Amino acid sequence: MLQRRKKDQSYSSSSSSSDISMPPFLPIRTTSEPSFKSFILILSILLNLYLLFLTWAPSYAPLTSSTLITTVSPTTRRHLLFSVASSSLSWPRRLPYLRLWYSPNSTRALAFLDKPPPLPLNSSSSSSSPPVVISADTSAFPYTFRGGLRSAIRVARAVKEAVDRNETDVRWFVFGDDDTVFFVDNVVRALARYDHRRWFYVGSNSESYDQNVDHSFEMAFGGGGFAISCSLAEVLARVLDSCLRRYANLYGSDSRIYSCVAELGVGLTHEPGFHQVL
Ligand SMILES: *[C@@H]1O[C@H](CO)[C@@H](O)[C@H](O)[C@H]1NC(C)=O
Ligand SMILES: *[C@@H]1O[C@H](CO)[C@@H](O)[C@H](O)[C@H]1NC(C)=O
Ligand SMILES: *[C@@H]1O[C@H](CO)[C@@H](O)[C@H](O)[C@H]1NC(C)=O
Predict the structure, then answer these.
(1) What is the Å distance from ligand 3's center to 79 Cα?
(2) Is residue 45 a part of any domain in this protein?
(3) Which of 113, 115, 123 to mutate to test the pocket of ligand 2 (most atoms within 8 A of CB)?
(4) Which of 112, 211, 220, 276 is most buried, judged by most C-beta within 10 A?
(5) Which ligand 1 atom is nearest residue 105's CA?
(6) Global pTM value
(7) Residue 211 CA to chain centroid, in angstroms?
(8) What is the CATH number of the domain that holds 124?
(9) CA distance 158 to 274
(10) What is the Å distance from ligand 3's center to 130 Cα?
(11) Which structural domain, as residue segments, surrounds residue 158?
């Protein structure tokens, strides 16, 4: 109703202004006034259109991104690369946990160890466990958290080492501890809802209030596992070493990753399916 009335008014005012401005014998002063009015009118219409475009623009952005995601094939198991942080010491005890969710035929996973596992477990005869990768030496990195464990650097660096392998067709890098039990199909379903070509850091905070206060409510805790989209992971891998040197004061690996992701301007996308039990 309001819009129609406004339109009618504007139509009538424009026709009247043209009537007045048309006769050439009218004094200049009177003709300049309506033309100034119509100038203001056109200016305000242009301004309105500009403001309308501005307010519409943000609603267009997610539309295009969601239409884009339908053009790529759905995310499946083979698009996920799991990286598990372990050690030669804990490896024999944690293998049963890994076998709960890992399947060599359908799950892509790597286990990052500090050194080769004990003899009977070193061969690939244990094909029901993920391939073992020996982490690179991190003794040159500073670690200043009193009473903490230096292995936090090695574990955080698995993010870079997993990316640098150039594994094909990885959309999501998923990280967890050697006692993290993944329900792979659930992880796939959760991550398939996000566009891996955009920067995503997906996980959940701790179920312990104190842990969240000590670290952050916006940090993904490693015990529950977390995921990084391939586009973010590639950028993160490039800056990780310099970033790890700057956060020598932190305790764990997950707070290191959190800090480095935060430096890239990315916040946590909360997926409560990733959770750790204390
Ligand atoms: C995995 O694939 C191999 C070869 O195709 C097959 O022999 C084996 O039974 C499969 N294992 C499982 C758990 O499906
Ligand atoms: C496992 O250990 C045996 C004995 O030391 C060695 O011959 C073999 O090459 C090792 N396998 C792997 C995969 O490292
Ligand atoms: C991965 O790709 C980069 C750049 O193409 C290359 O420098 C690097 O050596 C590759 N790494 C592996 C393990 O193939």
Answers:
(1) 19
(2) no
(3) 123
(4) 220
(5) 1
(6) 0.73
(7) 22
(8) 3.90.550.50
(9) 19
(10) 22
(11) 75-270
